[in-house]
Design goal:
The chain is an alpha+beta fold. The protein is about 60% helix and about 10% strand.
Length: about 210
């Protein structure tokens, strides 16, 4: 089965989200063991995490075996997910590409549904990440995580990019104001740049001058 463009894009989004989901599931397990959700919820979060890890690692291994590059697979889940996300053209070439899509999609969706069930945390998008990676702004989104019940985990803002410093070193609440100012400045910069691009496209071929920020 050949993956369509939609399935390929969806699979890429899933793989990029895997490290963050794995982290949240670990937090959910801790909350379930000690909170109102109880052990049944903790067991569900554990199972969802195991299924997601198994699906990602299994298909990374299948892709590596097919390309005779098994030793290229990294050791951490974050790196494995990124490795596979960057080799989706290899996965598409597998006869079992459809099975790979179904299993990873099912596992990631299950992980997301488990995370969204407990009322122990509020999660909301903040804006574009202002960190610089290799002379460019990080292309991922910053998300805020705010616990409803004190003591489960600290409130933080974290970048979704597993390769970004702010994924592993999230902003604590005392840094939210300064981080928010940087995010807002970047958001305005991106809006101006988009306007420049749009204006340039509208006037292309009509002799209009192109201005820039």
């Amino acid at each position: 089965m050949t993956l369509c463009q939609f399935c390929g894009d969806r699979l890429a989004d899933h793989l990029i989200a895997v490290p963050d989901l794995h982290h949240e599931l670990a937090l959910s397990v801790s909350a379930g063991r000690g909170g109102e959700q109880g052990l049944p919820f903790a067991s569900g979060a554990t199972l969802a995490s195991e299924q997601m890890v198994a699906a990602v690692v299994h298909w990374a291994q299948q892709v590596a075996h097919a390309r005779a590059t098994i030793w290229e697979i990294p050791n951490t889940l974050s790196e494995v997910a990124g490795w596979l996300a960057n080799r989706l053209d290899w996965l598409r070439a597998l006869v079992s590409a459809g099975d790979a899509y179904s299993q990873i999609d099912r596992a990631v969706c299950r992980a997301r549904s488990v995370i969204d069930l407990p009322p122990h945390r509020t999660r909301f998008p903040v804006g574009p990440c202002p960190e610089i990676i290799e002379a460019r702004y990080c292309a991922f989104e910053v998300v805020a995580y705010v616990p409803v019940r004190v003591g489960i985990e600290p409130a933080v803002m974290r970048c979704r990019n597993p390769d970004c410093r702010r994924h592993h070193e999230p902003w604590p609440t005392e840094s939210w104001r300064s981080a928010g100012e940087r995010i807002n400045r970047l958001r305005e910069h991106l809006k101006r740049r988009a306007l420049v691009t749009r204006t340039s496209g509208d006037h292309k071929g009509r002799g209009a001058a192109v201005w820039s920020t």
